[in-house]
Amino acid sequence: MSSATFDLSSTFSMHNLDTAPPTSTTATTEELLEYFETMYTIRRMEIECDTQYKSRNIRGFCHLYDGQEAIATGINDVFTKEDSWITSYRCHAIALIRGGSVRQVLAELYGKHEGYTKGKGGSMHFYNKEHGFFGGQGIVGAQVPVGVGLAFEAKYNKKEGEPMNVALAAYGDGAANQGQIWESANMAALWKLPAIFCCENNNYGMGTSVERHTSNPGGEYYKMGNAIPGIKIDGMNVLAVREGMKFVKDYCANGNGPMYVEMQTYRYHGHSMSDPGTTYRSRDEIAETRSARDPIEFVKKALIENGLKEEGEMKEIEKRIRKEVSKASKEAMKGEIPPMEELYNYVYSEDGSKDKTEQQKFIRMPQYDKSIKA
Ligand SMILES: Cc1ncc(C[n+]2csc(CCOP(=O)(O)OP(=O)(O)O)c2C)c(N)n1
Ligand SMILES: [Mg+2]
């Protein structure tokens, strides 16, 4: 099996830790191809969302993950589906990677019944408990205490002689100074929970930059804790994410308590579809990041420069994935809107019974004729 070795010596910074991930790693052609395909699929799916949003086939909130693909891909490589993962509204890629398909994700965004959450959640509310994915959350930071609850569950239900599962709560740099993160971090440290506080630092919150919104010099979120150690990882390098997360998971699963992880990354799109993303940062900065730090180009270059794949072969793969995403989108769009009865499924019934179809007095009926495109 062909493989190559990669230098990781400048991809980690440690805080209050005596050990560190390895300074180099080996990856096989198969592994690199898998990362490439996953990341390129996410990229094309997000670009399709952008196009369809602008064509008004997707409504409401929509937050895209392009630029940040290596984080979800690298974490997923290390996690099992028994490990828990909860994140913010920027959740399409996690939904896809945790047991979903492009068609299901896009169908959800088109409001179709076959969608990931039956066309009822939309961009911010994907959820797949069977694959250890506890959802996107619309309230900034709200996922973090829930993630600590998931870590509590992992410790509570740990079986004798088996490794402890871990729980990861992802949040942005803008969310990082929320009170509920500090509170839940304190509990996680006190109870030595296997909780991973994973800050995806893309340098910007909603219309503002790290320099403006945090008193933490340089926005170094891996140094948030005194009692909790931290690690900063190059979140644009999927191999650094993989090796860094192996280290983090090992630390947390062995009963050492929580860890702060800061993934250094970049968001190509604005915060959401209503934000062009160019009022608080320059177009040059975005272009420079694309050409110097793009996570997908990194893997493509790794394959080509190490003689593991030819440029032509990579182009063929890109072409195939573009076609697959476009086909999935067309099929998703053909789906049916949810039937009226679906509205009442998975809503708690008033008397606590398990009848999922009981209709609730307080649910306002949707006006489909007004909300669906003619
Ligand atoms: C409690 C709360 N406050 C404000 C908002 C509005 N809001 C949504 S996202 C966001 C900024 C978050 O930025 P960051 O955490 O860096 O995440 P990113 O969008 O960059 O992934 C704000 C202020 C909200 N949804 N919830
Ligand atoms: Mg941010």
Automatic annotation (TrEMBL):
<dbReference type="InterPro" id="IPR001017">
    <property type="entry name" value="DH_E1"/>
</dbReference>
<keyword id="KW-0560">Oxidoreductase</keyword>
<comment type="function">
    <text>The pyruvate dehydrogenase complex catalyzes the overall conversion of pyruvate to acetyl-CoA and CO(2).</text>
</comment>
<dbReference type="Pfam" id="PF00676">
    <property type="entry name" value="E1_dh"/>
</dbReference>
<dbReference type="InterPro" id="IPR017597">
    <property type="entry name" value="Pyrv_DH_E1_asu_subgrp-y"/>
</dbReference>
<keyword id="KW-0670">Pyruvate</keyword>
<dbReference type="GO" id="GO:0004739">
    <property type="term" value="F:pyruvate dehydrogenase (acetyl-transferring) activity"/>
</dbReference>
<dbReference type="InterPro" id="IPR050642">
    <property type="entry name" value="PDH_E1_Alpha_Subunit"/>
</dbReference>
<protein>
    <recommendedName>
        <fullName>Pyruvate dehydrogenase E1 component subunit alpha</fullName>
        <ecNumber>1.2.4.1</ecNumber>
    </recommendedName>
</protein>
<dbReference type="GO" id="GO:0006086">
    <property type="term" value="P:pyruvate decarboxylation to acetyl-CoA"/>
</dbReference>
<dbReference type="InterPro" id="IPR029061">
    <property type="entry name" value="THDP-binding"/>
</dbReference>
<feature type="region of interest" description="Disordered">
    <location>
        <begin position="353"/>
        <end position="374"/>
    </location>
</feature>
<feature type="domain" description="Dehydrogenase E1 component">
    <location>
        <begin position="38"/>
        <end position="338"/>
    </location>
</feature>
<keyword id="KW-0786">Thiamine pyrophosphate</keyword>
